[in-house]
Design a protein that fits this description.
Blueprint lengths: L6 H7 L5 H21 L1 E6 L4 H4 L5 E3 L1 H10 L4 E5 L2 H10 L4 E3 L8 H4 L3 H10 L5 E4 L4 H5 L3 E3 L4 H7 L4 E5 L2 H8 L5 E4 L12 H10 L4 E4 L5 H6 L2 E2 L2 H11 L3 E5 L2 H10 L4 E3 L13 H10 L8 H15 L2
Parallel strand pairs: 1-2, 1-3, 3-4, 5-6, 5-7, 7-8, 9-10, 9-11, 11-12
Helix pairs in contact: 2-15, 4-5
Bound molecules: 1,3-dihydroxyacetonephosphate (13P) and iron/sulfur cluster (SF4).
Catalytic activity: iminosuccinate + dihydroxyacetone phosphate = quinolinate + phosphate + 2 H2O + H(+)
GO cellular component, one term: cytosol
Subcellular location: Cytoplasm
Length: 322
């Protein structure tokens, strides 16, 4: 068998990364590991990053909530965010004195694109006195115009923490509708959609149950409500991962972004993963090559306009305090 330069690392991922692919990755992985110590840098990677990033070079991995929480604790000069732009902005808000890099500035998000601070001003006019809860998948300017943030991992808790009968929950319409089913608080939604999760249908779920008897189906709450209703369980990417670890279903399907199943499968070789997934084109802009370039050349530094940073940070910190 071929001698790998990083045999221990390859041992962890061998069942999901073919040897020829790994051999192409090794050079960048070695360089990134060296650059991290040289620059005193850490890599925060979202659960949707590819396995060679997630298992090969990341220091901290998780869902949006975990990445925000861990960003506060980071003890390094440089944070590289292997994820999308709003995640890097959140890390910067929580670490104003650190250098935060995103390897590709075009790594956006359809939800973040769907709403502006001006839209929030109009919503506040139409619903005076109703607090605005903003999903973290938004720009810092939108966070600054909001009262508090939430993620898919804590949305119900955040809604109920406010002690009010009605809230505005923006911008993900499906997340808002899915949360509405779990609380008595009235929720007014916006029409934003995740372009990855909106593609799953109830028919997909039914077809999967027929084709894969006994499969346990987990749906991300950015999926349409009828998909979540048809699934066995719903939760953020971290909650899905924990579900697989704790319940160890014999056969499971994660209705979410494609890399998620790969990353979870590494830790649970006995679980069979059925994979009718959708790719996020924004998450997939990040690869080993541009992470390496980001570390080598300090690219691309994320900054937040000081005029909005304080208010945006307040919305994120209110969420983290819950
Ligand atoms: P979570 O990892 O917080 O569940 O978010 C999913 C997502 O779509 C992030 O962009
Ligand atoms: Fe945005 Fe959806 Fe991609 Fe997450 S998966 S970054 S919510 S488009």
């Amino acid at each position: 068998m071929k001698d790998f330069r990083l045999p221990d690392l390859y041992d962890r991922v061998r069942q999901i990364i073919p040897a020829p692919d790994w051999m192409l990755f090794e050079d960048d992985i070695e360089a990134i590991l060296a650059l991290k110590s040289e620059k005193n840098a850490v890599i925060l990677a979202h659960n949707y990053q590819t396995p060679e990033i997630f298992h090969g070079v990341a220091d901290i991995v998780g869902d949006s909530l975990a990445l925000a929480r861990e960003a506060v604790k980071v003890d390094a000069d440089v944070i590289v965010l292997a994820g999308v732009h709003f995640m890097a902005e959140t890390a910067k808000l929580l670490n104003p004195e650190k250098t935060v890099l995103i390897p590709d500035t075009y790594a956006g998000c359809s939800l973040a694109e769907s709403i502006t601070p001006e839209d929030i001003a109009l919503l506040r006019e139409a619903h005076p006195g109703v607090p605005v809860i903003t999903y973290v998948n938004t720009s810092a300017a939108v966070k600054a115009a909001s009262d508090i943030c939430c993620t898919s991992g804590n949305a119900v808790k955040v809604v109920e923490s406010l002690g009010v009968p009605k809230v505005l929950m923006i911008p993900d319409e499906y997340l808002a509708q899915n949360v509405a089913r779990e609380t008595d608080v009235e929720i007014i939604a916006w029409r934003g959609r995740c372009e990855v999760h909106e593609l799953f249908t109830r028919e997909d779920v039914r077809a999967m149950r027929e084709a894969w008897p006994g499969v346990t189906i987990l749906a991300h709450p950015e999926c349409p409500p009828e998909v979540v209703a048809e699934a066995d369980f719903s939760g953020s990417t971290a909650v899905m991962s924990d579900f697989v670890g704790e319940r160890k279903p014999a056969r499971v399907c994660l209705l979410t972004e494609c890399s998620m199943s790969d990353n979870v499968a590494v830790n649970h070789p006995a679980v069979e993963f059925v994979r009718p997934c959708n790719l996020c084109p924004h998450m997939k802009r990040i690869d080993l090559r541009n992470i390496r370039e980001a570390l080598e050349n300090g690219l691309h530094e994320v900054t937040v306009d000081p005029a909005i940073a304080e208010d945006a940070r307040r919305s994120v910190e209110r969420m983290l305090a819950i």
